[in-house]
Amino acid sequence: MMVLWGRLSSINVRKVVFTLQLLGIPFERREAGGTFGVVRTPDYLARNPNALVPLLDDDGYTLWESNVIVRYLAARDADGGLYPADLRQRFDAERWMDWQQTTLNGAGREAFIQLVRTPAEQRRQAAIDASVAATEPLWDMLDVQLAKQPYLSGQALTVADIPIACEMHRWRGLPLQHRSRPHLEAWYARMIALPAARGVLDLPLS
Q1: Can you tell me the distance from the alpha carbon of 42 to that of 25, in angstroms, rounded to the nearest whole number?
Q2: Model's pTM, two decimal places?
Q3: How big is the CA angle at 20 (ends 18 and 22), to the nearest 5 degrees?
Q4: Which domains does the chain have, with CATH numbers?
Q5: What averages of pLDDT result for each successive group of 10 residues across the chain (206 residues)?
Q6: Which pick of 11, 64, 71, 204 has the fewest CB atoms within 10 Å?
């Protein structure tokens, strides 16, 4: 059985859990990171020298970096349909995954840190405002993309949708005014309706 280290309060761990559940792969999750510790132990560092979560162990093969783990799982289970066989469609999906990590996550992270993980009396409104200003146009961009097709990379669910759905879960959970974006909202409704989303996209932020 696969072993996954990481706490579910981590967006990056949620990506991997969502993928495992979508593919129906049995796994054992072990709490690690944050208040659970573990990540600085010699055994963990030997597997992941970054001392971060998630960490996946597939029969002795260890892998870290959340989006890479998602790609690995999807490629490992080709019948699951998450990793397009067509080369161009596959790299279109991968492009959205990288965009989530390099652009969307960076824009919205500070609002999450300030509003969820920072005591109210220590919050910096300027940091929240800057994060919101950087993130809102990115959701607009996604709404335009999803007006063309039901999923980010075409007509079917792929690896592209997983990290962005986890990002959307985090953003929608923040106590902010959220503008109406009908195509984005319809896509997210499809994502949270998936049985595999249970225990991932229905969790409160922490």
Answers
A1: 28
A2: 0.97
A3: 65
A4: 2-80 (3.40.30.10), 87-195 (1.20.1050.10)
A5: 97 98 98 97 97 98 98 95 95 98 98 98 98 98 98 97 98 96 98 98 96
A6: 204
